Structure prediction request, 187 residues.
Amino acid sequence: MEKSMNFNHCFVPLKLAEAQAFVAEHHRHSKPLKRHRFSIGVKTELGIKGIATVDNCSSSWANRHDHMEIRRVCTDGTKNLASFLLGKASMACFCMGAKVVFTYTKPYEACSSLLADNWDIDGVSHRKGHIPLIRWMKESPWEKKIDGVVWSMETGERVPRDQHRKNKTSRMLKTLRAWQEKYKDAA
Prediction:
C-alpha cells in the first residue's frame, strides 16, 4: 500500500512567473495566466510539484470583490496534490475575505479533486460555440447562513440548505457523467 505524502511542510507562495512556467510545461489544455491575485505551490528539493493560481472572477461576478476564482490547478501527477492545493487555495481566499470561491472544469474531466475537497456543482457555463464548462463553488465556512432553508424548485417545499445542495450536486453529477460520455473524444 502506497503511503500518502504530507505536503504541509513543502507549501509555499509563488511568484506569477514561477506559476506561469509550471503551467506552460505541465498543463494539458490551458495557457499560463497573464495576471493573478496570488499563486501557491508545493516545492520539494526536486522543484515545484504543483501550483494553484487565484484571481478575480472571470465571469459575471468579476465586479464582486468578495468572490474569487481558482483559475489554474496544475500538478506533475503527484497523488492527492490537486486536492491539497484546492483546499489551501480556497482557505487562503476565505482568509482574505472572500465569501465564495469558484472554479470551472471541462465536462470530460474527472473532477475527483473537487469532490474530495467538498466543492459543490453550481451550474453550467454555456459558451457560444464551445463545450460548456461546469461551474463549481465553495462557500466560506465562517459565513453565517441565514435561515438554513431554501425553497425546492421540484417540490415547492422548504428544504434544509445542506440537503438542497446535496440534491443539486447529485443531479448535476448525473448530468456531468452524461457530458463526460458525450465529450470523451474531445479530450
Summary: The CA atoms of residues 9 and 62 lie 33 Å apart. The chain has four helices and nine strands.
